[in-house]
Design brief:
The protein has 494 residues and is α/β, with parallel strands linked by helices. It contains 21 helices and eleven strands.
Amino acid sequence: MPYSEHIEHTDLILACEDFSNEEFSNFHCFFSYEEGILAQLMAHGPVLLKGGRGTGKSALLREAARRLNSSVTSPTFGIYMSLRHLPLLRSQGHQYETEFLRILYDKVKEVTSVFGCEVEPFSDVYATHQSLNHLSDKLQKRLVLLFDDAAHIGREAGLEEFFDIFRTLSSNKVSCKAAIYPGVTKFGTRFDVYNDAKIIDITRRKEQPDFQKFFLEVMKSRFYTQIEKCDFSSALHIEEVAEFLGMAVLGNVRSFIQGCAMLFEYGQKISLTSMSETMLRLASDFFWPMLEEVKIKIGMYAPLMDGSIQLAEKIYSECGNRKSTSFIIHRQWVSKYSKPLEILEYVGFIAKREASRSLKSGGRGTRYALNLCNTLENVSGSRLTQELFSSWMENTQEDTQFSASTNAFDGIIVGSPDSSQEIGILSLPISVLKKSKLFPNGLTEDKIQRLEARGWNTVGEVAEKSDAELQEIEMIGPKTVMRIKNTVEQAIWM
């Protein structure tokens, strides 16, 4: 990927959805690991991409669509669409199906208009199946439907309906692909996850091909100007810095970019000291606040968040004392804390590595890799020494093991899911959308006041308004509408 002129704001853009088409091409790179996934996204057959927040699911889906549509003579046509729509979030059953088909129809009609083809209305799922197959015949292209944000943890209301639609639409002429999160279990009675789709876990690991090369390229493309001004200490090469930081954040691209932005704030000298301070800042200012952010977005699982935070604190306290990069937790604790562990995996605190591993004390458990930024907080002295840097890079530290008889989790109280609980962010005042660290591209005080003057007081109320309704407000044009929409979307969706 050729380096482009550094665009000032792109180093702080964390989600690929916020890039224009041109910026997306300039600031995303794909190597052997990603190429293997992209090949499956563009091929026949249904695929589910599984990964936590910020792991790169959207980027892969978007890139697949771009490649599928790169040539007019291509035998395939990709349709990328985000399912970040409030009506879908709030519906299930027949209502979900109706809303989903309406959104799908509008998108298909929009992207295929360049071919001059009329798209038959989608009255129900079976009619949609027929209509898409007829469209494939007209275009003489296989259709690839790429559904982003199909399934969010804590938002399972319409999942069974989605997977039923996903299964029905899949055919030899229509290939369905979708992004899901860890812990998604409501596939429905008709959807056989082992036969109706291939699940690809996209979590990046240090031992995978091109791990260092990938993160080095991300760093160079997103922070080219800053790198040119930097001097890396004799103890650290830029390749090592990129690899170590990528490993420290469990291969999470979004967290890596945030970490790079913090690292280059320290000036021209990149050293173990600045690396150490960056990791501690990521832990205190990015990862732990993320749990509080998710708490108001996770809906029915909000009562479990305090217990999830307690569990994370206990794990990191034990593992930090041992300077571990991973831990094994007995299956009885995995069963007891299944949802909190899924939540911690979703936010990038841990990453599942092995489903079953023997413990020295007997029995078997699940092995997880640790976010090393949070681990460093609990290491004696909270300092990244050369010795610690080397041992973590070479992965020479033993796993911390939580046996069946451990008392490490004493005092943890995990609440129960509450299916009646709506997503908390929707009822919060729109003042939470003000420009801040949480919303770097948020709204000005003036715009918030103009929205409030219309009698719109909550995030949910603003989210429900159309572009036309927003543009009726004085001093709010199309660009401001887009900014409002993007900010609201960032606030609601995870």
